[in-house]
Amino acid sequence: MTVFPITTRLKLLFLTLLSTALLLSAGARLGAHELLPTIADVEVTEAGEVALELQINLEAFLAGIDLDAVENTNDDDAGPDYTELRAMAPQDLASQVPELVARWSAHPVLVAGEPLVLVQDTLNIPDDLGLEVPRISQLRLVADLPAGAETVTLNWPVGSGPLVLRQQGVEAPYTGYLDGGRSSPAIALAGGGAGSAMETFIGYIPVGFDHILPKGLDHILFVLGLFFLSTRLGPLVWQVSAFTLAHTVTLALGALGIVNVPGSIVEPLIALSIVYVAVENIFAKGLNPWRPVVIFAFGLLHGLGFASVLGEFGLPPGQFIAALIGFNIGVELGQLTVIALAFLAVGWFAKRDWYRARIAVPASCVIAAVGAYWCVERVFL
């Protein structure tokens, strides 16, 4: 029987896993869509009503997808229902919206001393998008305010996923971020509810952390790719420092609108960066002189990915720096947590002779295969 050298066997293992990933990509179900946060603008109208204007993926809500638990329609049992709704003409989809509005009134979503009954005002459903693109509709709801009402509270239902809530038409407006099942504070209808710099800073730390753990699986795999090259503190610090510096730069530039690269370009490149670090782990036995430079370049890409997240949220104009720093610290805490968990899981074996062959290389093969799958998925699906 032929016995291949260890390097050849490693290459064969990697190619096998990579081929499997590509085949899985080719057979993945069509109609998968990334799920984005809902954005809600609330204001008092000249007619004395409270208006709630939503930028919303109606198909996800109507299909009953658990937006608290998944980030892609294929990850939920209701995915086929979503795909069917996504294929509907705008007028057919619009006929189902009143039922959703009625559920929100019964919840109730808005309270101003008493539950408010929401009424559909306007609805704009785009009809010029390909089926592979998520359709974000504009839904405006209004409700009569009780006499003497001074505040309004928004109760976001369980399963509705993240919500960016922004007050409009007043000075010092409230801006907040809610997960499904959470409620906003009482928002002063006359304005003045903007958080302090410290409140904003603290409030955006968990937002940044959440986009690493548990939602940032691509960023988690990239950090693990750095970890599996070497668990020695020196190489790890060099790599993480280069990555942190780079994504901080593009995170700031992207959030300020100075740099704007479409997600259709950034996301496949992020997946390729995962493949690169993992493949290099397989064939390199230590930190090459150029690795920090490469990691820095990839950090620029990941920073653009984070910036798109902040762009969706809409940073509070008066607290931009505080929110940006808080978000970035949350991201860093998430990355450090990933490294700490990796140390707890396999760091004990790092000094064993068999660690690289039995743990680091196989783990890197899996990371590379997943990255390759994502790259194909993000380009073609």
Keywords:
six-stranded mixed β-sheet; globular; three-stranded antiparallel β-sheet; 381 residues; 9 strands; disordered N terminus; 12 helices; alpha+beta
Please tell me about this protein's structure.
The chain is an alpha+beta fold. The protein has 12 helices and 9 strands. It has helices at residues 6-26, 58-63, 79-86, 90-94, 97-106, 197-210, 217-229, 233-255, 263-283, 291-313, 320-346, 355-380; strands spanning 38-44, 49-56, 110-111, 119-124, 137-144, 151-154, 163-167, 175-178, 187-188. The strands form 2 sheets. Strands 4-5-2-1-7-8 form a 6-stranded mixed sheet, with helices on one face. A 3-stranded antiparallel sheet has the order 3-6-9, with no helix packed on it. Helix 7 packs parallel to helix 9 (263-283) and helix 8 packs parallel to helix 10. 39% of the residues are buried. Residues 1-31 have low confidence and may be disordered.
Strand content: 5-15%
Q: Number of helical segments? A: 12
The CA-CA distance between the termini, in Å, is 42 Å
Helix content: 40-55%
Largest beta sheet: strand ordering = 4-5-2-1-7-8
The chain-level structural class is alpha+beta
